[in-house]
Records
---
Amino acid sequence: MEKVKYSVVVAAYNEEEVLPAFFDRVTSIFDTLKEPYEIIAVNDGSRDRTEDILRERCLADKRIKAVNLSRNFGQQAALLCGLKESRGDAVIVMDADLQDPPEVALMMIEKWKDGYDVVHARRKSRPGESFFKRSTAKMFYRFAHRISNPKVPENTGDFKLYSRRATDVLIALPETNRYLKAQSAWVGFKQTFVDFDRPAREAGETKYNLNKLVKLATDGLISNSTYPLTLSFKFGIIACFLSIAAFLTFIILAICGIALPLAAWLIPTAVLLFGVSWSLKGISDVYTAHIYEEVKNRPVYVIKDKFNDQL
Ligand code: UDP
Ligand code: MG
């Protein structure tokens, strides 16, 4: 098999309107590199002519490879399949709708040649997307960034370049719940950014309905974080402290001769009961967080390289 230097990986779900333009743009830009490349297109259970278009393109151009999934598994699953099929020294993941301009991939390749293993394309602007989508995405990224460890880079999507070794680490991750944005940060090695203006979709409609967006967002929030699971314990402890402070205040007031009606004592009593039950629940949540980390079963470390290994 001929050695390929670059692999372009794309997931496509009902993208008949945009795929021909996608292949034309990507091939014309990657041809300028004058180095062997492949395009791996994963058809994520499309119900339109996506599969036919892929068949035609594969017949016409041997550098294009297509995989048809048995049903719609979601973009993240389709991308993992594409990464597994890829053979290039550098792998560039992009969307089919040309919102990830192939020209930007050339800048990413320059960074890879400078020795970076993961290059994130960062969106400077997102014209053509609704105010709702832009502002919710912004809030989401900020929050996800705060609670994650390692940090999920802000304003980035799946448009990234991975070196071969970064790709191999990603593929080998055992967890089934895939969220590449977080996992790419987790991989480590040298990472950097290229900034670009994100254009509007070239044709067709977004393939992310509200359900899929919510699933993606929750996966994103928890992929590198167990913070949400620690909240009940924190709330519980805070409630316990507040109620004890209220009790002490009431007692001091009573000593000073200011007697509060009996009903007033019910409030800190209720808060205390709430606090005790939430902190007890929180303890089991802390165990759940640990179980979650164990079940993800990620490697405990990734080796970059070794010195004097062969001596
Ligand atoms: N996609 C996919 N499976 C899905 C949903 C989306 O493979 O279930 C692909 C889609 O074809 C596109 C990419 O994921 O190549 C990003 O989707 P889209 O452009 O609709 O998302 P948006 O840019 O609106 O967030
Ligand atoms: Mg898009």
Note: The mean pLDDT is 91.
---
Amino acid sequence: MSEVRVRFAPSPTGNLHAGNVRTALLNWIFAKQQNGVLILRIEDTDQDRHVIDSEEGIVNDLNWLGIKWSEGPDIGGDFGPYRQSDRSEIHGEYAERLLREGKAYKCYCSEDELKKEREETLAKGLPPKYNGKCRDLSAEEENKKISEGIKPVLRFEVRDGEVSFVDLIKGEISWKLSNIGDFIILRSNGMPSYNFAVVIDDALMKISHVIRGEGHVSNTPRQLLIYEALGFMVPKFAHTPTILNKEKKTLSKRNGALSIRRYREEGYIPEALVNYLSLLSWSSKSGDELLSKERIISEFSFSRMSSSAAVFDDDKLLWMNGQYIRALTSKELLNLSLPILEKSGYQTENFETTSLIVEAVQGNLTKMSDLPQYVEVFYKTEVEPDGAAEMELIKRDESKQVFSGFINSIEDYEEISAEGFKEIMKKVQNDTGVKGKDLWMPIRIAITGQSHGPELPMLIEYFGKEKVVARINKVMEI
Ligand code: GLU
């Protein structure tokens, strides 16, 4: 069997978002599963859309997610260069060849002419398509255009017929070529068009499987024609379904899709994002949703991919991220927490204490950026009931009974552990007859000022007897 070689070929037009990354991820998963090679190729020939520094951002985002390639602009490889703009000479040579073989021709039509023609065709209710005006220019006509200083583009001549291919996800797709006009392969500035460059690069880089977003299905017939014209081996294609947002609009920056960088800044766990993205349009046979990278790699198959659009559900991703946070080891949690806490101005010099604090709230977090808000209670020196409802609650007679019962029972303890606290609460319940929320909530508010937050026994142990007694005495005076 020949080697599996796949590529992720982003255009450096800004930050990666979930859609692009899903494509990168599937290429990586498939390469890993097949012991193949993943290539990173930067498709930067459209200079107008080029956003400075986006290549660096792409590399950083992919690295963060753990998606690794074995050939690319940053590491080289035997099939380089891997930046498309560095391959112009190669593209030019193949374009020349098509010209020589009469499969392409120079077109001198101006933008204005093309625009006018397009409008006329549309007005007739027909699909816009180049009319082939420059296909058979005489030498005389051509010389005239040249003497006028017009720089031509190179167009591929599309003859009549049909093309088809079997997509690994969507099945057989075919087109009538009569709907496709002669398309540009080289622009007047010598730069190749996407449809041309992508074929030359995929063929020369020996790509075996082209895995990309379904937006490219409509480009595929043009690409197939170039493969055929140059006698290249045609790779297999897998076009992945579009990702929609909750409003059922295509996920895009414009429609509010978060960039991968933002997920990173908000404290998402890369493995959670990888897990979530892999489940868009794909499911494991077992039906399990929390899947390690290793399981995704071993269980993935195109045949289990749905061909309809997937909906990106932020809440589900958040839930999944929470699951990954709960599964972090103490050390991993501490390492992720330290920079976040430091940025918020919290003292973190004592790793033992900091560890205790972050572990106490580990179960509350759905993303790491929520950490400062959850740990606030641990660092506060002065506590006040947070709002009117909290204030009302601590003033109730029942609450006052709980407070004094608590103060009485705690006297028997020299220090107070999480276990000791539970014993005390049991005793207070027996003595006062108050139970459930009415028993626990006043204590929580007295200690933290808030009606929700980390595990109370852990908090009590962390604060210690003296502080706990002082805080309860304080609310009793309100
Ligand atoms: N550069 C193209 C894009 O970013 C990818 C093309 C392809 O995968 O064929 O959409």
Note: The radius of gyration is 32 Å.
